[in-house]
Amino acid sequence: MLGKKFFILAGALSAMAALLHLACIYFGAPWYRFLGAGEQMALMAEQGSIEPTIITSFIAIVLTIWSLYAFSAAGIIRRLVLLRVVLMFITAVYLLRGVAGFFFMSSPMGRSAEFWLYSSLICLSVGLVHLAALLKSKP
Questions:
Q1: Residue-wise pLDDT tens digits, 15-29
Q2: Shortest CA distance to 117 belongs to which of 131, 98, 130?
Q3: What local confidence, expressed as pLDDT, does residue 31 receive?
Q4: What pTM was computed for the model?
Q5: What is the structure's pLDDT at 113?
Q6: What is the percentage of the chain residues whose pLDDT exceeds 70?
Q7: Cα 120 versus chain centre, distance
Q8: Most buried among 7, 80, 91, 111, by the most CB within 10 A?
Q9: Phi and psi for 95 in degrees, rounded to 5?
Q10: How far out from the chain centre does Cα 20 lie?
Q11: How remote is the C-alpha of 62 from its chain's centroid?
Q12: Which residue range(s) make up the domain with 126?
């Protein structure tokens, strides 16, 4: 039962992240800046380039799929293929992204050190929710 609740939370967190990415597309450069996508992405959005939309749409689609897998494990939607393997992959990506971000703080690559700190903490937290869900259940 606890695993199901963790999977619901994990799915909601990934869905929220997907919605924030879609909001960047809709609201444009100010949102890219506010959410830390980097000045280059914000400038491209201001100039009408399709590149930020393509990149951000891809990320939103991936996060939506990840959300669906978590909801599937919770029993909210039908069982998806390779459920446990995909959930382990998603968990690993969130945890690795969370840890890796700390190494970019000293050389932020067009983003701020704060972006890497906060986004890494968020990714680690979401990864830990996924890990707890996996450990507490057998989807």
A1: 999 999 999 999 999
A2: 98
A3: 96
A4: 0.93
A5: 83
A6: 99
A7: 11
A8: 7
A9: -70, -45
A10: 10
A11: 8
A12: 2-136
DSSP string, 96-136: HHHHHHHHTSSS-TTS-HHHHHHHHHHHHHHHHHHHHHHHH
Measuring CA to CA, which residue among 7, 3, 6 is closest to residue 77? 7
Residue 86 in tokens: 């995909």
> What pLDDT, on the 0 to 100 scale, is given for residue 33?
93
Residue at 2: amino acid letter: L
For residues 106, 111, 113, 116, the Cα torsion angle rounded to the nearest 10 degrees is -100
**Residue 108 confidence (pLDDT) above 80:** no
DSSP H helices, the chain, are: 2-27, 29-34, 39-46, 51-73, 83-103, 113-136
Say how far apart CA 86 and CA 97 lie, in whole Å.
Answer: 16
Residue 59 and residue 86: Cα distance in Å, rounded? 17
- Structure tokens, 108: 């932020």
